[in-house]
């Protein structure tokens, strides 16, 4: 029963996203913003109402129907001053590619399943997501962008990552917001892949190291990774430096406090 409800929500999300895509062809930016904000307000107002339970609630506590409007709104705001096709791509990856991944994941024969953040993903689902995402790029991105193999490869890798690391429906936020952030960073770097690739690698390595050392939980490490990409790649080092200083001093002080507490406890014994 819950599986059928999830499929119903995916179909609703698909047609909602396609309808919004059509509106991007006719409405001005401020009008689109009004529509997206109205949809977000509607989602949050109806979330606790029993009449809309089939739309929102699942047995596994997914918050996907709340992440969905937030992800679309975040992507639109990030790309507000960028060419509209970047937002259209982010939107269609969420609606078409994510739905394709969900449908492909239901295929049992020959499929391989794995867990990320206690949420099951499938090999067929990842492949379906990557293929449809590439088709979306091919359909909407300019030829000069698609001619860059490195750009398309990095875009696909990041998009798949945004889908795979999701938990409790958070891919409805991470996919559009992450894709939008990628396009924004590429605009900041004039389409140069190397600077962004270095930022992604450094942020990922730093977050993973902090997780392995026990300073961060798995979810916190993912958050630090995305914040690192945003602050360094988008805002620049002038913003990243004070944030990184505050973060590392906070971690150091927390560790020092924990160590002092354990030492005091040991001495009292």
Could you outline the blueprint of secondary structure elements for this entry?
Elements (H helix, E strand, L loop, with lengths): L1 H23 L4 H18 L6 H4 L7 H15 L5 H22 L7 E4 L2 E4 H18 L2 H4 L2 H16 L6 H18 L4 H20 L5 H18 L1 H32 L1
Helix pairs in contact: 1-5, 2-4, 4-9, 5-6, 5-9, 6-8, 8-9, 9-11, 10-11, 11-12
Structure explained in plain terms:
With 269 residues, the protein is mostly helical. Helix content is 77%, strand content 3%. The protein is built from twelve helices and two strands. The protein has helices at residues 2-24, 29-46, 53-56, 64-78, 84-105, 123-140, 143-146, 149-164, 171-188, 193-212, 218-235, 237-268; strands spanning 113-116, 119-122. Strands 1-2 form a two-stranded antiparallel ribbon. Strand 1 and strand 2 form a beta hairpin. Helix 5 packs antiparallel against helix 6. The longest helix is centred in the C-terminal third of the chain and has 32 residues, at 237-268.
Mean pLDDT: 79
Strand order of the largest sheet: 1-2
Distance between the termini: 55 Å
Helices and strands, in N-to-C order?
Answer: HHHHHEEHHHHHHH
Low-pLDDT sequence parts: none
**Largest pleated sheet:** 2 strands, antiparallel
Number of helices: 12
Q: By helix and strand content, what is the structural category?
A: mainly alpha
Helix content class:
over 70%
What gyration radius follows from the Cα positions, in whole Å? 20 Å
Question: Which overall shape is indicated by the principal axes computed on the Cα atoms?
Answer: globular
- Per DSSP E runs of 2 or more residues, the count of β-strands stands at 2
Residues in β-strands, percent: under 5%
